[in-house]
Amino acid sequence: MADLQQKRIVLGVTGGIAAYKAAELLRLLIKDGADVQVVMTQAACGFITPATMQALSGKPVYTDMWDARAPDNMAHISLTRAADMIVVAPASADFLAKLAQGFADDLLSTLCLARSRGGCRLAVAPAMNREMWGNPATQRNVAQLARDGISILGPASGAQACGEVGAGRMLEASEIHAELCALVEPRLFDGTRILITAGPTFEPIDAVRGITNRSSGKMGYAIARAALAAGAEVTLISGPTALDPPAAACIERVETAAEMYSAVQKHVERADIFISVAAVADYRVDAPRKNKIKKSEDTLTLKLLPNPDILSWVAARPRPPFCVGFAAETDNLVQYAEEKRRRKKIPLLVANLAHEALGADDNELTLLDDDGIHVLPRAAKTALARSLIAYIAARYRATQKS
Ligand code: CTP
Predict the structure, then answer these.
(1) d(CA 133, CA 384)
(2) Whether the CB of 354 sits within 6 Å of ligand 1
(3) Cβ–ligand 1 contact at 142 (below 6 Å)
(4) Is pLDDT above 70 for 2?
(5) How far is the CA of 336 from the centre of ligand 1 (A)?
(6) Is 26 helix (H, G, I), strand (E, B) or coil?
(7) Which of 208, 286, 295, 353 would be 303's cystine partner, CB 3.0–4.6 Å?
């Protein structure tokens, strides 16, 4: 069953360039089998037409408080009473301000205010210029919305339609879709503390060069988000990546394997579960140079020293957390991965093929534990992360009972 199948969703669209992404989001929701009613503000209709959204949702779009199609003329009540969730994407700065203050001067703001807070979640995907996002007024409003239990999805950082670069871009439709799936996820990990390592490490050679690998951090970050969605308290220790960390995680940024090791040592005591996704460099350069090494005709020899194996160290502690390892292999996937699981003495190891996994948005995972092999077929890393979290929850719970 798809995550959002049969969920009744009101998709609110407010005025902003990102309104075009709402059409793609609508398509993804419909593909999942959700029942979607689109409501647009007047400003949204300046960016994308209701006809597009009607065609994609298969339903007439509501734009007006006084729409005569609502039999009792109370569209703001009838639309939300039937809904499991309202998602506003894009949510303009103006709309966030209205929500924070409880204004109700058009259909969308009125139905947000009129929703049943027990039965209908509200999520917003902000989209605006970076200065508007950074403005203390917007930040105050967003903090208030979070306090009111409204889910804030994004925004992302990057190039903006206005030509400036910074935070305020709406998440991509696929990212919003993944966050919405996570919102309806069962809270498998309420009260559980999960420590996650993610990304590559960077081992300096000199002041400007280093040894690293192709890990993007996408899988580890997706797992952190899925764990948060399942109710866990997440600490994410991340090597250098270009990704925005999940806002609700406690994030610690590191560069080298030694720094990652120290960070894990600091946090492991409190962890119930340790998920070691990071592609930790196995070696570091002996005595990296403070200055840039100058070119010469001579052969340059680097002496490499082995790094500590962080996962093995955690697993060997007297009362270790439930340990989940990852293995990226280029060949003999199952054999090498099972050997690794036994060598590191961990209950669960997640194996994947390095050339398919590194940097990609999708993947296939092979899970190895005492019960044998279990495959999570190819899917987006965000979806795989949710399936993996559900699997870990089941295994972890079994160890708690025994
Ligand atoms: N790992 C770790 N510390 C290291 C190396 C690896 O914690 N110094 C963890 C990784 O996060 C992963 C697991 O161990 O969960 C396996 O990592 P991988 O690089 O696949 O295996 P290695 O033990 O490094 O063995 P090899 O490189 O020979 O495959």
Answers:
(1) 31
(2) no
(3) no
(4) no
(5) 12
(6) helix
(7) 286
- What would the pLDDT profile of 105-119 be if each residue is shown by its tens digit? 999 999 999 998 888
Domain with CATH 3.40.50.1950 in the chain: 8-184
pLDDT band at 46 (very low <50, low <70, confident <90, very high): very high
Instruction: Using CA atoms of 247, 251, 257, 261 in order, give the dihedral in degrees to the nearest 10.
Output: -140
Q: How far apart are CA 44 and CA 153, in angstroms?
A: 19
Top CATH class of 8-184 equals alpha beta
Residue the block writes with tokens 């972890």: 396
Specify the ligand 1 atom closest to the Cα of 277. Answer: 11
CA of 280 to the centre of ligand 1 (A): 6
Measured CA to CA, the distance from residue 283 to residue 303 in angstroms comes to 9
Tokens, residue 88: 């506003």
Of the CA atoms within 13 Å of residue 65, those in its CB half-sphere come to 9
Core vs surface per residue 153-183: b (16+ CB within 10 A) or e: bbbbeeebeeeeeebbbbbbbebbbbbbbbb
| 137-177 pLDDT per residue, tens | 999 999 999 988 899 998 988 888 878 888 899 999 998 99
Please return the burial class of 110, using the count of CB atoms within 10 Å of its CB with bins 0-12, 13-18 and 19+: buried
CA gap 39, 77 in Å, rounded: 13
Write the DSSP string, 33-93: T-EEEEEE-HHHHTTS-HHHHHHHHTSPPB--TT-TTSTTS-HHHHHHHT-SEEEEEEE-H
d(CA 394, CA 369): 12
Q: What is the pTM of this model?
A: 0.71
Amino acid at 108: L
Where does residue 139 fall: left (phi above 0), alpha (psi -120 to 50 degrees), or beta otherwise? alpha
| Torsion over CA: 324, 327, 333, 339 (sign) | negative
Distance CA 153, CA 174 (A): 12
The secondary structure of residue 200, as a DSSP letter, is B
Contact predicate 396/272, CB 8 Å: yes
Given this structure, which CATH class describes domain 193-401? alpha beta
Positions of E strands within 175-262: 193-198, 203-204, 210-211, 233-238, 250-253
pLDDT of residue 118: 80
Q: Which residues are catalytic?
A: 162
Cα Rg, the chain, nearest whole Å? 24
3-class DSSP state of 162 = coil
pLDDT value of residue 73? 67
